Amino acid sequence: MSLENLNDKQQEAVKQIEGSLLILAGAGSGKTSTMTHRIAYMVDQGISPYNILAVTFTNKAASEMRSRVEDLIGDCSNMWIMTFHAMCLRMLRIFPEQIGYQPNFVIYDTSDQKTLVRNILKEKGISDREFKPQYILAVISKSKEKEKDAEGYRAAEEENYKTKAIYTVFKEYEERLKKNNAMDFDDILLNAVKLFERDEAALLKYQQRFHYIMVDEYQDTNHIQYKLIKMLAESHHNLCVVGDDDQCIYEWRGADIRNILDFEKDFPEAKTIKLEQNYRSVDNILKAAHSVVRNNRSRKEKQLWTNKECGEKIPYYRADTDKEEADYVARQIGYMADKGRSLNDFAILYRTNAQSRLFEGSLSQHGLPYRVLSGQRYYDRKEVKDAMAYMRLVVNPLDDLSLRRIINEPKRGMGDKSVEKIAAFAEIRDQSMMEALSDPEVLDTLPGRAYDSVKEMVECINLCRQEKDNLRVSDIYDTLLVKTGYMKALEDSNTVEAEARMDNLMEFKSVIYDYEKDAENPTVEEFMEQLTLAAEVDNYDEDQDTVTLMTMHSAKGLEFPVVFMPGLEDGLFPGNKAFDSVAGMEEERRLCYVGMTRAKELLYLTSAAVRTRYGRTDYTRESQFLREVDKKLLTGDAVFEKKSGGTSLGVSTGSMDGYAKEPYKPYDALKYARMNTRANAGTGETEFAVGDKVEHKKFGQGLVIEADDKTVKVAFDSVGMKKLAKGLAPLKKI
Ligand code: ATP
Ligand code: MG
Q: I need a labelling partner for 180 at 20 to 30 A (CA). Which of 339, 363, 504, 598 fits?
């Protein structure tokens, strides 16, 4: 195999296959390419693909790596190239009993978790206003990252009202998962560690199998992931990790840069190779990215070089409004596409998913096909979740959460009371609800109205389970939707919304067809697993000519000829929270570095002077990061004419001079918004501003929709819209 396309350092890394190796290098320096070549080289040297494990962060990265390796050496289907989660799942499916699960366990995704926590809060009489499910789940997840279960949490925290409540929910949450034969995402990793700790044979099996281990994007591994890898590599130390400390963007999820330092400690013989040449970006982009990230204090200084040309200056455009910003981006893309660029060349990388909406609008308006890469959106739709719940029950009859989701979906006359009655029966009989309902004795207790349809549903699901190995996944899907009456209910309702739902269910079928086409041995279990694991970037199809929209987080490891980074405003990017701590700001800055270094030829930076977020319109201030970019590299001229006024769109880079001199200070968007409303209302006394959360003695909590000097219009959670007289109404801000 020829390695002549690689530089000397890269070749050195490729050829060192025994022992431990750390490749530490900046963006676009060929870390992933080196890893790919290293795998191919090993196989070329006679090492069996079966003995190689390569771990990546996204499924997309895994499949890309596999296809690149296959390009080099042909088929390597028995090599494990996969994400941490996929790897652990495979192992757990083989040894489920060792960790107290049945083989057909299911995975709960974020929204399943939320539902479960919400149910628990309700049952325990804990207020979900005071303890938001999302907050509790964050605490649980943080705990699990530190390998602490509910008891561990209790032991570690000071006992008070708050920690007691969280413990109660945590404990019940654990039990409920176990009872439902289900795991959440954190459990997947945690249980793999448990498996290795409890079962030496299992650990030995994988230690022997994976004689050579590689981890890409190592800077983003958390404690548990590190521990797993360390256990697997313990006996042979043939471990190669690849990373860039400047690109650590998952600290908030427990990623720990110290893993790199620990690596050198745990594997003292490790060799470190640094790559310094960047092959991805033109010089201006590289320099701009560096001019931002060098402001981080906690980093090892390193500067990449490239022998590419310096490239265009980086256009920066400050739009009047967020809408206009989106329009500007779409027009730029349209313009360049007219000149012959493929739409695949373009990516719009934003900070938050919510930003996609405006770009979707402007791209549609300009007739430019696009793709939004955020797994959530589609799979979060109600009908899709329902269909998935039906399919899960086929796989796992213990899954009470799924049963609760669909028992009255479509309407079967099963009110809360009837559902709770079934739950109680199940509890007494120590069964799941599905199992209980499969017994005629329990079915008989249902009200007459519900009896027939519930019976039909239960029989249908049970039948699908019995026959699942004889049926195609798509047949199971059809059977479930038709026989349980789900489709019919949608058809009968005859609304536009129902039609859209049916379309989505058809789209879901194409997901199944795709799976059936590609899978070696398609099963409903494997299909469900893939769905749950499908990370954001996964529905990304390179063959289709479209503009790509995604968050900067999910763009990790990818590259595009032209990148747009919109929303460069304090409070959005960096986000408001970043202003609370230096560490938070530095993480956002690394994210900015990741975003900018995705660009190969052109990078566009934009911001909007006025932006509407969460229903509130704010004046914005240009991003701290923008102010950090070396101004010599920016240009405000390479832009179009303004639609309305006809003046040059170009905001000359000089306009930022004033900011650069200002002290570093967080921007208080809320304060500005209030001042704004106040000015409009023409009164100095207005205490309530649009967007304020308020509490009324009688009506409870609500949101201020309008405010002038005499009245306040509030949308209350309880009674809807009310116009109240200021000064009289028992209203206070919260
Ligand atoms: P990131 O930090 O963003 O993950 P990376 O270090 O993994 O980047 P790669 O994605 O492997 O970098 O490579 C970046 C680009 O440079 C790719 O297009 C790759 O094909 C190219 N490249 C890598 N090494 C070389 C080389 N020696 N000669 C020419 N091109 C190269
Ligand atoms: Mg990479």
A: 504
Is residue 31 lining ligand 1, measured as CB closer than 6 Å?
yes
Cβ atoms within 10 Å of 427's Cβ, excluding its own = 12
Other CB atoms within 10 A of residue 134 CB: 13
CA 599 to ligand 1 center in whole angstroms: 12
ipTM of the prediction: 0.99
DSSP 565: E
The Cα 235–Cα 231 span in angstroms is 8
- The two tokens of residue 103 are 């083989």
Cα 250 from Cα 225, distance rounded (Å): 13
Q: Which of the listed residues 10, 32, 38 should we mutate to test ligand 1's pocket, taking the one with most ligand atoms within 8 A of CB?
A: 32
216 is catalytic: yes
Find out whether 29 is annotated in a ligand binding site. yes
pTM recorded for the entire structure: 0.73
Q: How far is the CA of 98 from the centre of ligand 1 (A)?
A: 42
Q: How much is the pLDDT for 514?
A: 76
Q: DSSP string of 468-482?
A: TTTS-HHHHHHHHHH
Q: What is the mean pLDDT of residues 665-694?
A: 45
Is ligand 1 within 6 A of the CB of residue 308?
Answer: no
For position 227, what pLDDT does the model report?
92
DSSP strands (E only) in 86-238: 106-108, 182-184, 212-215
Q: Which ligand is nearest to the CA of 8?
A: 1
Domains of the chain: 8-93+190-277 (3.40.50.300), 106-180 (1.10.10.160), 314-373+541-636 (3.40.50.300), 380-534 (1.10.486.10), 681-733 (2.30.30.140)
Tokens of 363: 């791209």
**pLDDT tens-digit series, residues 4-60:** 899 999 999 999 999 999 998 989 999 999 999 999 999 999 999 999 999 998 887
